[in-house]
Amino acid sequence: MHLILTLSVFITLTVGHPRPRIERENTEFNKGWSAFLEDETSSFFDISLTWSLNNTVPGWIKGSYIKNGPARKNFGDDRHYSSWLDCWGKLHKFTFNGESLTFSGRMIETGNYNKSVEREKMVPTITLAPVQPNDWTMMEQAEAVSNLYDNTNVMLWKLGPANKDVGSYIATTDFPYVHEIDPDTLAVKQKLGLNPMTDGISMGTCSHFRREVGKDSSINFHMIYNPMSLQPDFAIYRFGNTWEEREVVGKFSMDHMSLVHMFSNTV
Predict the structure, then answer these.
(1) Which phi and psi angles does 113 have, rounded to 5°?
(2) Which of 160, 184, 156 minimizes the C-alpha distance to 170?
(3) CA–CA separation, 248 and 101 (whole Å)
(4) I want to staple 240 with a disulfide (CB 3.0 to 4.6 A). Which of 52, 57, 67, 245 is the partner?
(5) Distance (Å, rounded) from C-alpha 110 to C-alpha 191?
(6) Which residues pair with 230 in a beta bridge?
(7) Averaged pLDDT of the chain
(8) Cβ(169)–Cβ(184) below 8 Å
């Protein structure tokens, strides 16, 4: 059943609708973006930074600021992702400690990402936009259904309190899986998802969790397939310090699938 649902979603994204070729050429008033947006896949840790104006970092700023975002669209073959939404994520971390400021970066080394690195070519996965110059063949689409989607390239979210030693850090996307991240090394610790036996089969979620007001818990939703109605149920979850510490707050039936990205809930 899970494979059938995944296949139906994949067909909707790829086969069900022709995927137009996307052209990005420099024009008279649109120059330099190709160089600016080149892949940057290197790993580096605790590089010391200084202000160009010779100022010091305010001593009261302490802690790390970690951002997630796409950084790789090619693996050495002639193919590339046509949309940054499909490009592989990388974490960048700025750490403030008194007057010291250091900078670290590392790709989010998921299972499918590592497969592509090892093969030195793009491994078929579910994508939102066409792969260029040639999109997936029918045989590659079958492999993409097997590989699914594990590119958590949107957010890094802290489950639990502000205390670094309590709780966990997860890289997220709108697909119903996350990766637990080591905040020191930026390495992937494990891939996490709902339990299909106890939670049901999630057809989608949201990259952006919401901190529960006045608490350390986090709120998000999953669209759980309902085998009775053949439609999703919108289930709201409360997460504690870890992915495993979760409970259903409530749920209601939906008439159709939906993509709800919820940028406003990160504010």
Answers:
(1) -60, -45
(2) 156
(3) 41
(4) 245
(5) 8
(6) none
(7) 87
(8) no
